[in-house]
Amino acid sequence: MNFNLSDEQKQLADAVRRFIDKDYGFEERKKHYESATGYGESAWGALAELGLTALPVPEAQGGFAGKALDMMVVQQELGRGLIVEPYLATVVGAYALGLAGGQDALLEQVAGGELKLAVAFNEPQARYELNHVRVTARDGKLNGRKVVVVHGGQADQLIVSARSSGGDADQDGISLFLVDAKGAGVSIKDYRTIDNLRAADITFQDAPAQLLGEAGKAFAMVEQVADYAAVLLCAEAVGVMDTLNAATLEYAKTRQQFGVPIARFQALQHRMVEMFIHAEQSRSITLLAAARFEEATPEQRRRYVSAAKARVGQAARTVGQEAVQIHGGMGVTNELPAAHMFKRLTMINTTFGDVDHHLGRFAAQPGFQEAA
C-alpha cells in the first residue's frame, strides 16, 4: 500500500496550516475558550469556509466524501493549533449520520457549517465499554444520563446510544437516536475540561428522539463511529506532539544553565530524540489505521484502531511529561503553550478509550492468543 499523501491532501494540509499560523495564535485561542460559548464563532466560520465541515459529508449532500485519511490530514494540522472549536464532535456526528442514512438535510447543514453535532455514547458506569448502556428508549422517548459528552453543550443535535431491549451490557438491543439538544426533556450541564475544551453531562427525561437505522441493531455502528473518532484523535495528538517537540527544542536552545544552552547537554539531547521517535511512531501507526479504515473488516479495524490509540496514548504521555521536565516549572504554567499541549494530550488519551482499554481490546481480538 502507498502511504504517501496525494497532492490534494498536501494542499489541504497546507491550507489548514496557513489558517492556524495566521488566524489562530495562542492569544486568539485563549479568547475563544474564555468566551461565553467556549469557542470562536469566527474560527468556526473559517473552518466552514475552508470546506472542512464539508469534508466528511457525502457528495450528494454537498460534501467532499473525504475518507479517514483525509480527515487525519486535517486533524493533524488542527492539533498543531490546539483548536477548541467543536469540529471533531461535529464531523464524528456527521460520520454517524452518514452510516445511518436518511438524514440528507442535516448533512447539508453540517457541510455548510450551519449545524453542530455531538455523539453521546459514554455513561458513568461504562469505562469505555460501548455496550454498557443504561439510557433507555421506550415509545420514542429517552431516559437516562450520558457523561463527558465532548462539546455536548455546543451541539444543535445529539446522536445518542440508548437501549431498546436487553440487559445493561448486551450488544443486542442498542439503538441510535437523534435528539434535539435544545428540545424538551434534555438537561445539559456544560463545563470546561482541563484542556480548555468543553464537555457536558446530559440527562434525558422523556426526551423525544428519532431512531437512526434499525432498532436494537446499532452496536456495530456505534463501535464504528467510536473507532472513527479514535483515529481522528490519534491524528490530532500527532499534531500536538509535533508542535510540543518543536517548542521544547526551541526552549532548550534558549534556556541557559552553567553558561550554555541546556540543548547542549547530551542527556537532554537523548531525551528529545526519544520524544521525536515517539511522535514519528505515532504518526506511522495512525497513518496505517486511517489508510486501512474503510477497507478493513470489523476485526481488522478494531486491531488497527486499538493499536494506534494505545501506542499514541503511550507516546503522548511520554512526550508531554518529558516536555514539562525539560521546561521546568514553566512547563505547567498557563502562560506557556507547552502546558496547554500537555493537558490536551492527557485528555486525548482518556477520550474514546485510554491505553489500558485499547491494549485489552487489541489482545481480545481473534487470533491474538494463537499468534502469541
UniProtKB/TrEMBL annotation:
EC assignment: 1.3.99.-
Residues of the Acyl-CoA dehydrogenase/oxidase N-terminal domain: 6-95
Keywords: FAD, Flavoprotein, Oxidoreductase
Coiled coil region boundaries: none
Cofactor(s) listed in the protein's UniProt record: FAD
Signal peptide: none
Residue ranges constituting the Acyl-CoA oxidase/dehydrogenase middle domain according to the UniProt record: 118-206
CDD domains: ACAD (cd00567)
Domain Acyl-CoA dehydrogenase/oxidase C-terminal: 222-354
The keyword Oxidoreductase is assigned to this record: yes
SUPFAM superfamilies: Acyl-CoA dehydrogenase C-terminal domain-like, Acyl-CoA dehydrogenase NM domain-like
Similarity annotation: Belongs to the acyl-CoA dehydrogenase family.
PANTHER family with a match to the protein in the record: ACYL-COA DEHYDROGENASE, ACYL-COA DEHYDROGENASE FADE28
Name the UniProt record assigns to this protein: ACYL-COA DEHYDROGENASE
Lineage: Bacteria, Pseudomonadati, Pseudomonadota, Betaproteobacteria, Burkholderiales
